[in-house]
């Protein structure tokens, strides 16, 4: 096995260190966003227990993982979410974060922060009630706004608002959302639509895709400062008039793959080495239930890391 360990950090065969672990703790959700791609995970009904997740992150830490992110589905649907965060925090990581649609965040923000959650990303695309209803098929916009405010007040830092920008739907709200985030104390992340293999010519992507290139040029001109986040796929952060904007460009590029430092865990306990692939998953939950030791589970992780390769090379899909 070529996987090596440098300064207590496991790297894959392409010298990419493994720094973060993203765990999808459920596929259930309380909204039905029409652009959702389930974070690249095939929908399942199964969910791991807090104890099982605690064991997984314990082994991951021994491999040098420093950051944990919990996602879904909608993770706050799980009534054991605070216990789960507490168990992860007790293992000891420099960063524990969560991605949510914010609907239940007002209820949980303070408890989650006390349990050890560091920061939160809130998927929130519009300040227009009709547009919110069109995107989510629900009427929870005010709940989400209250959740963002409560998260800031509770001490979670940073609180980021993830706005998927879609042509003809919410592209005219970018600066309104920036103003909302600046007044609230949140950071705005503008996300460009991801094209999937299911998107044929004339499909959803072609209809709603909004190219961020022109906006980035505008932000570069008006920003007081621009920073590049090296271990976040060279993502740009713009400091504008006392607020912050980050641009998340599509992941189908070499920069994303070259700088990828993340492994994922599916809700049914499989290690997912690459966001864009579903044919190389490695089961860790069944070996755990069969009584594998932590040392043996580390080897399961190493097997998954061995499967990691850049999905895109020089702008093209690197065929297996």
TrEMBL record:
Residue positions binding GTP: 22, 69, 99, 160, 262-264
Residues engaged in binding [4Fe-4S] cluster 1: 29, 33, 36
Pfam families: Mob_synth_C (PF06463), Radical_SAM (PF04055)
One of the record's GO molecular function terms: GTP binding
Residues of the Radical SAM core domain: 13-244
Keyword match S-adenosyl-L-methionine: yes
Top enzyme category: lyase
The protein's required cofactors: [4Fe-4S] cluster
EC number assigned by the record: 4.1.99.22
Pathway in which the depicted protein is active: Cofactor biosynthesis; molybdopterin biosynthesis
Free-text remark on how the cofactor is bound: Binds 2 [4Fe-4S] clusters. Binds 1 [4Fe-4S] cluster coordinated with 3 cysteines and an exchangeable S-adenosyl-L-methionine and 1 [4Fe-4S] cluster coordinated with 3 cysteines and the GTP-derived substrate.
UniProt catalytic activity: GTP + AH2 + S-adenosyl-L-methionine = (8S)-3',8-cyclo-7,8-dihydroguanosine 5'-triphosphate + 5'-deoxyadenosine + L-methionine + A + H(+)
Alphabetical UniProt keywords: 4Fe-4S, GTP-binding, Iron, Iron-sulfur, Lyase, Metal-binding, Molybdenum cofactor biosynthesis, Nucleotide-binding, S-adenosyl-L-methionine
SMART domains linked to this entry: Elp3
GO biological process, one term: Mo-molybdopterin cofactor biosynthetic process
Translocase recorded as keyword: no
Binding site for [4Fe-4S] cluster 2: 257, 260, 274
Chain positions recorded as S-adenosyl-L-methionine binding sites: 35, 73, 123
Role description: Catalyzes the cyclization of GTP to (8S)-3',8-cyclo-7,8-dihydroguanosine 5'-triphosphate.
Family: Belongs to the radical SAM superfamily. MoaA family.
Protein name (database record): Probable GTP 3',8-cyclase
Organism: Methanobacterium lacus (strain AL-21)
Organism ancestry: Archaea, Methanobacteriati, Methanobacteriota, Methanomada group, Methanobacteria
């Amino acid at each position: 096995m070529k996987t090596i360990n440098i300064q207590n950090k496991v790297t894959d065969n392409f010298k990419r260190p493994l720094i973060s672990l993203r765990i999808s703790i459920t596929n259930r959700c309380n909204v039905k966003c029409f652009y959702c791609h389930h974070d690249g995970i095939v929908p399942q009904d199964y969910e791991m227990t807090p104890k099982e997740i605690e064991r997984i992150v314990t082994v991951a830490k021994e491999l040098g993982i420093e950051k944990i992110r919990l996602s879904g589905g909608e993770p706050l649907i799980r009534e054991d979410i605070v216990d789960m965060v507490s168990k992860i925090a007790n293992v000891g990581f420099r960063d524990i974060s969560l991605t949510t649609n914010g609907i239940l965040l007002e209820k949980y923000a303070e408890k989650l922060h006390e349990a050890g959650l560091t920061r939160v990303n809130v998927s929130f695309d519009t300040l227009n009630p009709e547009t919110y209803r069109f995107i989510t098929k629900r009427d929870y916009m005010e709940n989400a706004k209250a959740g963002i405010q409560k998260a800031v007040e509770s001490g979670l830092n940073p609180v980021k608002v993830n706005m998927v920008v879609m042509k003809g739907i919410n592209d005219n709200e970018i600066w309104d959302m920036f103003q909302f985030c600046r007044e609230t104390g949140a950071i705005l992340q503008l996300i460009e639509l991801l094209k999937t293999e299911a998107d044929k010519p004339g499909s959803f992507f072609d209809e709603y895709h909004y190219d961020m290139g022109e906006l980035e040029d505008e932000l570069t001109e008006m920003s007081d400062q621009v920073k590049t986040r090296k271990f976040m796929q060279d993502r740009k952060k713009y400091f504008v008039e006392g607020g912050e904007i980050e641009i998340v460009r599509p992941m189908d590029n070499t920069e994303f793959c070259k700088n990828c430092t993340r492994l994922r865990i599916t809700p049914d306990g499989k290690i997912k080495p690459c966001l864009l692939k579903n044919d190389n998953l490695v089961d860790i939950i069944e070996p755990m239930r069969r009584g594998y030791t932590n040392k043996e589970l580390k080897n399961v992780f190493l097997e998954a890391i061995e499967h990691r390769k850049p999905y895109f090379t020089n702008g093209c899909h690197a065929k297996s």
